[in-house]
Structure formats: C-alpha cells, structure tokens
Design brief:
Distance between the termini of chain A: 37 Å
Largest sheet of chain A: 7 strands, mixed
Strand content of chain A: over 45%
Helix content of chain A: under 10%
Structural class of chain A: mainly beta
Radius of gyration of chain A: 13 Å
Number of helices of chain A: 0
Number of strands of chain B: 9
Largest interface: A-B, 27 and 21 residues
Strand order of the largest sheet of chain B: 1-9-8-3-4
Order of helices and strands of chain A: EEEEEEEEEEE
Mean pLDDT of chain A: 95
Distance between the termini of chain B: 37 Å
Low-confidence stretches of chain B: none
Helix content of chain B: under 10%
Oligomer: heterodimer
Strand content of chain B: 35-45%
Shape of chain A: globular
Number of strands of chain A: 11
Structural class of chain B: mainly beta
Mean pLDDT of chain B: 91
Chain lengths: 112, 113
Amino acid sequence: KAGVTQTPRYLIKTRGQQVTLSCSPISGHRSVSWYQQTPGQGLQFLFEYFSETQRNKGNFPGRFSGRQFSNSRSEMNVSTLELGDSALYLCASSLRIGDEQYFGPGTRLTVT
Amino acid sequence: DAKTTQPTSMDCAEGRAANLPCNHSTISGNEYVYWYRQIHSQGPQYIIHGLKNNETNEMASLIITEDRKSSTLILPHATLRDTAVYYCIVTMYSGGGADGLTFGKGTHLIIQP
C-alpha cells in the first residue's frame, strides 16, 4: 500500500505571497492532520480533517487554513507569508480520528 | 494531555538492545502512551502504543510500569538505521486526541558501530 505523499517536496516563496501544499493520504484513511516543524518550536499541530470537516485546530493564526476533499486528499494554504513560516510542513493520515498516524515526507517551505 | 520527560540523548552499541525511558507521572487512566521516531529529514514514523499492558510488534516492545507513571521503549537489536529522535507521547485518545499529537523534544538515540 502506498504511503502518504506530499507535493511539492520543496518550495521557495517570497514574503507576502501565498502557498498551497497538497497531501494524499494512505488509501482508505479518512483523517488527515497537518503539522509544522521548525528548529525553534519543534513539531506543532496545525489542524485535522475528517470527512471534509475540520475537527481540531492548533494555535496558529488564521493565515493558515486547510481543506479536505471527498477523496480524503487535503490541502493547506498559508497566505501573506512571513519569514517565520519557513518550515517543514508534515501531513499525516490515519484510518479514523484517534488512530495512529502515518506521516508523509513533508514539504520544505523557504520564505525569503 | 499529560506531559512527558525523556533524556535528551542516548548512545547504544549496534546489535545491543536500546532501552529508551519516558516519564509520564501525570498520566490519567484513559491516556495512551505512544512512541514515534523521526530519522533525520524524514517524517515521523509510528512505532508502537499501549494503554496499560506491555506491547510488542515487529519494531519494538513497550513496557509500561504498573502505576503507568513511566514506560520504556525497547529496540531489541539496534542497527545504525535506528539512529533517530524518539518521541514519547501521552494522549487521551488512541491516536491523535483533541489537539493533535503533542511532540516534545524527544530523545536523540545514536547507535554506535
């Protein structure tokens, strides 16, 4: 069974721009979570989607948003990029909310 | 979710068992202990989880003390590929919990040849 895939793997953007990251979960998994990883703050939870609905949200500003499609694929969007948004963005999928999570390789975003 | 305490780093010789401790003294009765690891530049990898009984799978064993205030992850025959940061996470639900997984700083396990 194929693992979690994320696209693109690397991205360079300029301050003020917006970016959309994509995640395809493991086949059959209906829950998708997003995390941000930085050297200073470590791994932090952004949000979780199940059945196209956001179920949980971490402590991030409204510039961070996401959505999930009927095929469970998910996208996250960051608007008005700031230098501090440079990070590894990780997507994880699970069969249901509350099950163990399987992570993708991440998207490395650099904001200049 | 209960807070966890792990050593910052540990060394282990290749081929030996690696025993990674985790303290979670404020764990409540319906909280699970989860272990994930992250190899450099990769996404975290699920290892194992448990509630109160010891658990074993193809990757590792999880030993939880009777009072559930601490646990140990055991990699029975460590290899160089086991060098990674290991995260012990306590969460209410069997998995993510209400606020997603809360990752601490973890233990950097270095397997020495």
